[in-house]
From TrEMBL:
It comes from the Bacteria. Pfam families: FecR, FecR_C. Residues 160-259 form the FecR protein domain. PANTHER family: PERIPLASMIC SIGNAL SENSOR AND SIGMA FACTOR ACTIVATOR FECR-RELATED, PROTEIN FECR. One of its GO terms (molecular function) is sigma factor antagonist activity. The chain crosses the membrane at residues 72-93. This is FecR family protein. Gene3D superfamilies: 2.60.120.1440, 3.55.50.30.
């Protein structure tokens, strides 16, 4: 459905032929109906709206008169289908936009929130609910999994997205670049790159996988990712940056080409290479199996000859836990394993315990790591 027709219906009304086209589109899916409501409310109120579709539907169902007579039940269902096509959902609700998304103080929630936090260019801060929810503003649309920034010619300011422990989130920037953020990550980016000479974003901390649109598609503008101790200059490529420690940045190039800028130095990476920057110095560049370092974006924990300390550093970002090693030598024990992110933490610990090399005692979010005993 053309955007211009939707705006025309909201502002002036459609011709009979256009109205039929609209009704066919509108009745074909719940997603279309929610999109139309979002657009209508935004144009009427010119404010950010937030819709929790799951909660609204539950309230809607609670308004339905139930009956033991099956024929009456089907009659009510038929009436409701017609009504949904003809009238907005909020016609049936007392409070259609009751939802989990909340305006919050970003400083207060950054370190303790279990929800994804988005701060737009106007300073509005929104937390995305745990359930299926839809958020829309003048230049963006989002749900609990993804934020999409529209191309705009208007004022461009800075936006911030913060992903807490146990979450993963994707941002599609206005140039079409996709950034998948791992748990405990923070990204800052402009609404638009139109008025700037380069496309620049900041990975403040955490881990992100970038799929960058080429400079050729963006008037020759290079894409720059800024970190605490390095900048990455991109022509058009896919790569991963791990920046959980201020003193260590790991960059893995999947395809394309990047120029690594650190201190006053610069070096180019080729696909399959990984660089490690510590402080302002290049520690090493090595050949790696890149999927080992990007499996997280596909919902996997993949460990190859990884120390137990390293494994718990990864698990802590997802399950928000803290490991207490009872002996120093336990930290350097090497393990191999593949786990799904939706696995229960206890099941992962049991699998490691089955190697008969370590055992664990879980108390809240604290895990005591001990030598294995029969």
């Amino acid at each position: 459905m053309e955007y211009s027709l939707l705006i025309k219906r909201i502002k002036r009304g459609l011709t009979p032929e256009e109205e039929k086209q609209f009704q066919d589109w509108y009745s074909s899916s719940e997603e279309h109906r929610q999109y139309y409501f979002k657009l209508k409310n935004y144009n009427q109120k010119n404010t950010t709206i937030q819709v929790n579709t799951s909660f609204a539907w539950k309230k809607f169902e609670s308004k339905i008169v139930k009956s033991d007579t099956s024929s009456w039940k089907y009659t009510v269902a038929a009436i409701l289908v017609i009504s949904l096509i003809s009238f907005p959902l909020y016609f049936f609700l007392n409070s259609p936009f009751d939802q989990e998304n909340q305006v919050v103080n970003i400083q207060e929630t950054e370190n303790k929130s279990d929800e994804i936090i988005f701060k737009d260019q106007n300073g509005n801060t929104i937390s995305f609910g745990k359930k299926d929810s839809f958020v829309a503003g003048g230049y963006y649309q989002a749900n609990k999994d993804k934020l999409k920034i529209d191309k705009t010619q208007g004022r461009s300011g800075t936006n911030t997205i913060i992903v807490p422990a146990g979450k993963q989130f994707t941002v599609e920037l206005s140039d079409g670049t996709r950034v998948t953020l791992n748990a405990k990550s923070k990204l800052e980016f402009p609404t638009s790159f139109e008025q700037s000479k380069k496309r620049e974003v900041v990975l403040v901390y955490g881990e992100a996988y970038f799929q960058v649109t080429s400079a050729l598609e963006n008037n020759g503008k290079k894409f720059i990712v800024k970190n605490s101790n390095q900048n990455i200059e991109v022509i058009g490529t896919s790569f991963n940056i791990e920046n959980y420690s201020e003193q260590k940045i790991v960059t893995t190039l999947v395809e394309g080409k990047v120029n690594l800028l650190y201190g006053k130095n610069a070096i180019a990476l080729i696909p399959g290479q990984q660089s490690i920057i510590e402080g302002n110095a290049l520690k090493e560049i090595k050949e790696v199996d890149v999927y080992d370092y990007i499996a997280w974006k596909d919902g996997m924990f993949l460990f190859k000859d990884e120390s137990l300390k390293g494994i718990f550093e990864v698990l802590s970002r997802w399950y928000d836990i803290e490991a207490d090693f009872q002996e120093k030598e336990l930290e350097e024990m090497k393990f191999n394993g593949r786990f799904k992110k939706d696995q229960n933490l206890e099941s992962i610990l049991r699998i490691i315990e089955n190697t008969k090399r370590a055992r664990f005692e879980l108390n809240g979010n604290k895990i005591k790591v001990m030598q294995y005993q029969e």
